[in-house]
Write a structure and sequence with these properties.
The complex is a heterodimer of chains A (about 375) and B (about 325). Chain A has about 375 residues and is mainly α. Helix content of chain A is about 70%, strand content about 0%. Chain A has one domain: ABC transporter involved in vitamin B12 uptake, BtuC, CATH 1.10.3470. The C terminus of chain A is likely disordered. In chain B, the strands form 2 sheets. A two-stranded antiparallel ribbon of chain B has the order 1-4. In chain B, strands 2-3 form a two-stranded antiparallel ribbon. Chain B starts with 6 loop residues before the first helix and ends in a 10-residue tail after the last helix. The chains are: A mainly alpha (about 375), B mainly alpha (about 325).
Amino acid sequence: MSAAYARAEGALRTVWTPLVLCSFMVLIWLVITQIVNQVFYNDEAEKYFLRLLIVLALQMFSGNSGILSFGQVAFVAVGAYTSALLTIPTAIKQFTFLSMPHLLKDWVFPAQFNALEGTIAGGVAALVVAMVFGIPIVRLVGVAAGIATLAILVAMNVFIQQTSSITRGTSTMIGVPQTTTMRTTLLWVMLAIVVAYFFKQSRNGLRLRASRENDRAARSVGVHVARERYIAFALSGFVCGLIGALYGHYFITFSYLDFYFDLTFLTIAMLVVGGMGSVSGAVVGTSFLTVIYVFFQRFEVNGIAGATVPSGTADVVMAVALLIALILRPKGLTAGREIPWPGDWRWLQRTRQPQAPPAAQAPSAE
Amino acid sequence: MIVLASSSTYVQYVMDSVAYGSLFALMALSLSLLFGVMGLMNFAYGELIGIGAYTMFYTERYGWFVMVLATFATVIIGALLMEFVAFRPVRHASPSTLLITSFALSIGLQKFAYMVFPPGSPRTVEPIPWLTNQFQVKGVLFSRLEILTWIVTIVLLVGMVLLLKRTALGVQLRASTEDFRMAQLVGVKANWVISSAFAITGFLAAAVTILYMLNHGDVRPNVGQGPLLIAFVGVVIGGLGSLGGAALGGFTLGVVINILSATLPRSIQGHTLMFAFLLVILMLVFQPNGLMGSIEKLRRKRVAQEVPRVAEEPAS
């Protein structure tokens, strides 16, 4: 084997997982838009991409740190509202936000951002909020972290609901320009996959994963656990903000109810079912549950062989799927593995040796 | 505190707040019991209230006695089923996995309720006039329901204390709260203790449901979610896993929220809950053992000094 060939193989191995996952995304996009091309499936595919983005953002923090966050959807909300405020045409803002404080009014009303600027602004706003909340969150583990992140979600929801001068409170946002198309979302998804994967493989990602496996051991070799978590939390918050903006510009009308327990539950279920530990897990979980969800939704509406199930079944099935996954495969479908290199079955052989690392799972589990 | 309020208004706030806080004391106590015994912060507790609310709605027409009995029965059975179906298989998992499990169970049951009881016709539990009618004593408004709430809370709290201190089950429960594995080693049956804890939870939940629903009335699939979130905060303020602390925390929080929502200026009144939840985050970081936990720690330190160590703590 020549040196050049080995180098090429090495390079390809480095980018193998994101390459396969991105190709998969392009494939889905091609099949849905070019071959199927029905309004229903286009819509579902778009929602799939948006949810996948949130799951990827969740994976960046929770997957690497092992601390499940119930609060990332709050940052999605920050992104959605920020971008909406900055992109809604001035004429509409003048009569929908009558009671906005003057300080904000002078600054927000004339703002006319385009889609990309709005999205970045949403990300930056969410980043700032995440950097504030991150300070206490990164010092907590286990149930305490779970409750604290939940507190972020609830506090943000109450804030949006009650601050009607800025967020229209319980009314829906109106006049948000529809700028998110499937193609732009696809690009963001591929970017998020690459960022999530290389963050996981990066120096920070490695330190963070070390702290996930054994907090004390990681500290003993000089990992500043709180700092690593903080970086991941901020990154995840930023990405959530970007997604929120995309989300807002796709659905056009949204309210505080769109960023609460339902979305949180769905994205957590997808991540846990797929396997928190890997980027592939996020993709596999989201794809798997979306297929089941859409299947049952169709079952509710159209029926199969004349039989239908009551409406709402799809939602119940999601919860049951998560429960089954937690009971039978708590590490998720991928058990924290990435896409294997073709023909590379070393991980399979390694599990047969007596000195196998305990983390390696039985191959039959795939 | 409030200079402007006349003394009767002041008494009124206190009376209402005490009734409101009592309910959260009971909820926080049951959440804390489960957390202590098996490390489970039970999200699905709200759905126990939901189960109770629907039972009340459907049995109301048969008279209050049947309604109360049926509510207790279904909620306790619901709690035991929850344990058996969802929590038993994951019992040995980490607390955060248990938290996700209960989250999944909670959302699943809510969605199931939406499926079985489709929205459309609003369902309400009719108030019982004898209980909810208010009467005035020296300028302070009372209802019999408020008084009933105090009595039930006091009876249940005293009952819980007696159960925990005076019975074999109570000793087993407290031992499991201290150290679950050690308790098993000295002969405490895990299944029995955990099932009992769930049954007690169900019992308290049923009492809370009846008192809460007679006051609020509106039956929705997610009726338990709001009170549950406040009770969560109460547990944290009282200290995770500390039984007395949880009751105190739930009570304090209920009282504070009620007083704040009556006295804060209207413009930020709605934000009361937001402040409560931000307080939780700070509390978890700076005072993770809660109000009671700090006292408990001091007590243990003193005990530890008196008793010579027999074995080293195992490395976790």
